[in-house]
Amino acid sequence: MKANAIYIARRQALVEQLPENSVVWVASGEERIRNRDVEYDFRPASDFFYLTGFTEPDAVLMLKKQAGNVSTGLFLRPKDSEKEVWQGRRLGVEFAPRQLNIDQAWDISELIDEGCALLTGIENVYVSFSELSEWTETLADWVAQHKANSRKGDEAIKTIADLDSVLHEMRLIKSKAEIEIMRQAARVSVQGHLSAMKSVASEKFEYQVQADIENTFKQHGSPRVAFNSIVASGENACVLHYTENNAKIQNGNLVLVDAGAEFGGYAGDITSTFPANGHFTKPQAAVYEWVLAAQQAVIDRVRPGVLFEELQQVAIEKITTGLVELGILSGKVSVLIEDEAYKPFYMHGVSHWLGMDVHDVGAYKVAGQSRPLQAGMVLTVEPGLYLPKSSTDVPESYRGMGIRIEDDVLVTETGCDVLTVGMPRRVTEIERWMAANRG
Asked: How far apart are CA 131 and CA 437, in angstroms?
């Protein structure tokens, strides 16, 4: 299916779920100023890109369902030869309908007046409640005008509804086309991690490894990272969202890399942990293998019908068993789990949805109950163990290390498919790979 046809189909599928006399508004977002006349790199809001494939800022999509018809419109920046010299080419109002397969386009400066006119006879207005603060003033003006006109016999807006509950459910289940893009995002992400394993060395700085990762992403066609890269050596790995990446890597350190490439608007998300000098110590290997065992146990559990919360339960059981075997905890595993004795060492969830956003949209519970997995969902599997030097009740040989292992997993009709293939994972595989590929 051609790109425009995909976006047309998505818009149609969205509108079909809405009642008659409804309008949808979705904005691409605005450019943000970094300093003076320099902007931050712009990325369109994921919902907007999902429905249009259009990447310019200051654009708003309108979808209308009325009198048995569906119409689409786009408000966007006009052509401006002077500004395009400085800021880059614009699609423009004239070319938008043909290029994007929409019915009509307007200058973004006309949004307030034309948008209000488009709501004539409309009862239901859908916007993302996560962006409601950005719509509040405009919606209030539109509602007020239509309330005033209702005295003349016009239908007034009756409902302002949350688009997220409909659109985000669509985004949660990936199509074949989306899965192929996510496979590529995963492949590029794997190459970045392999570059880190190849280039890492004692006495290097974390940011130098980060540079190798992100250069590889770019070389493979990724326009940007999917999130801020984490390169954490030694005890820095015990800080879950460590992004300073400025420490010197010491001989004997483990290095935890949590990084992913964005490709075609979709995120990769991998965490790998490996020794800076290419060789695990026995304590490092022992902890690592338990984290890997937990990850594999969770992956083995992923299939349609399994409740999302079951994945965390599997991880907790395996991690707690490992903590007992390592001599970090003592007692009966079931009692330790009930007491949450594992939490000082494993404090995060084992999974999150993955898609256009690295922590992608979609509810984890439905009607208050944990959601069953369905084919087409993509999620991460990422158990970890974190043993800071301050943990004086932990055997000294384990202190100061943080280990997390993360892969991207597609739920299939019969089980699951790991998208992030190609990463050496077992201790012996990592040591062999690093020995063969480092200079």
From this structure: 47
Burial of residue 120, with CB atoms counted within 10 A of its CB: 0-12 exposed, 13-18 middle, 19 or more buried = exposed
Is 342 part of the annotated catalytic residue set? no
Task: Catalytic residue, from 32, 34, 98, 359: name it.
Answer: 359
Alpha-carbon distance of 165 to 366, in angstroms, equals 11
**Is 146 labeled as catalytic in the residue annotation?**
no
Question: What is the rounded CA–CA span in Å between residue 123 and residue 236?
Answer: 54
Residue 386 falls in the annotated catalytic set: yes
What single-letter DSSP state applies at residue 396? Answer: G
Q: Annotated catalytic, 168?
A: no
Q: Looking at 386, 398, 407, 408, which residue is catalytic? A: 386
348 as an active site residue: the answer is: yes
- Asked whether the beta carbons of 75 and 100 are under 8 A apart, the reply is no
Instruction: Express each pLDDT in 60-119 by its tens digit.
Output: 999 999 988 999 999 999 999 999 988 899 999 999 999 999 999 999 999 999 999 999
Sign of CA dihedral 392, 398, 399, 401: negative
Query: Residue 307: what are its φ and ψ, rounded to 5°?
Result: -70, 140
Q: Is 273 helix (H, G, I), strand (E, B) or coil?
A: strand
